[in-house]
């Protein structure tokens, strides 16, 4: 593409002017909206749905906190065997700013022992409460807690009450996992459903390093 | 919660046995499915939708590659001002394993200069092609390229043809941004729509460090 093509990109002068005007209006509208957004507070953030990216985006926010040097923590509720890459990276380089606790072990169908899974989930929840109560933490990621809530390994009413009454005002808490309880989405400040449009498992591709784990 | 509560968790022996049986069946079913997944190949991954987490999950995968010591690269197509935390973190600690190129500058409505935006997007696409062609890279993240495609700053047919004919077999390419073109989703191996369930801007909360940027 040469310079003159770049400059017109198939548009007439009039079209370019319209494009520019449209974008100026968008900018004005956006600035007007953003000017009304003045509060800061710690958010309750939920990532759910059958699609990819729930935990990955949660860890993305944790890395963003690490990047800003803001203390944070991760509690893994279910899949101890997954996200090991993140864990190693954080423990190796950033253990001064991010605590990492893996208390769940494997998916629940791996263990087939409900009593053990309940005990693990409760232990993870106790650790989560301790980390959230510690005002030094700017963000606490409760990875896959939704699975523990779904199987009633932890009581959702208790989690909601804790978030509403004991979470420090400026602390962000991120709760991930499919099948988030409706009550939790209700009280969330930010909730995203990761919806599966296409998945490579359907065409015989296995889980791969760097993508799935 | 004491130990005996933990062990029964409100379930009778019979209920516990049924739970265990159900989980055993789930495990069998999953193992059967996973055994058919034997191929490895580089995936074309699309994150789209109006919800949060598209770029964040993309960067999460990049951090996962970094964790495994696998060479990777990021090209930012639009929002040069965003994701600066990730950029600083990567450039400071992991520049040996991850290249970072920011070629877009701000959202398009910030500039109101289509010719400049087209030139920027084309430059970013040239860099993207160079990085993808380099077989050392295990993953290349094309952050916010969907916005450049939507405004036809880059030709989607050209991108698809490149991915189908020139992308090395084992290289993963991640394309993020809302309004992904249908044609792109068609050829993707893995596509996720991040759907907005709740957003704090609605209740007057501004973008916050570590969450939005």
UniProtKB/TrEMBL annotation, chains A, B:
Principal subcellular localization: cytoplasm
**Record-listed E.C. numbers:** 2.5.1.17
Give the species: Rhizobium subbaraonis
Return the protein name: Corrinoid adenosyltransferase
Q: Where is this region: Disordered?
A: 1-28
Tell me which InterPro entries the record gives.
CblAdoTrfase_CobA (IPR003724), P-loop_NTPase (IPR027417)
Q: In which pathway does it act?
A: Cofactor biosynthesis; adenosylcobalamin biosynthesis; adenosylcobalamin from cob(II)yrinate a,c-diamide: step 2/7
- Return the similarity comment: Belongs to the Cob(I)alamin adenosyltransferase family.
Instruction: Name the reaction it catalyses.
Output: 2 cob(II)alamin + reduced [electron-transfer flavoprotein] + 2 ATP = 2 adenosylcob(III)alamin + 2 triphosphate + oxidized [electron-transfer flavoprotein] + 3 H(+); 2 cob(II)yrinate a,c diamide + reduced [electron-transfer flavoprotein] + 2 ATP = 2 adenosylcob(III)yrinate a,c-diamide + 2 triphosphate + oxidized [electron-transfer flavoprotein] + 3 H(+)
Keywords in alphabetical order: ATP-binding, Cobalamin biosynthesis, Cytoplasm, Nucleotide-binding, Porphyrin biosynthesis, Transferase
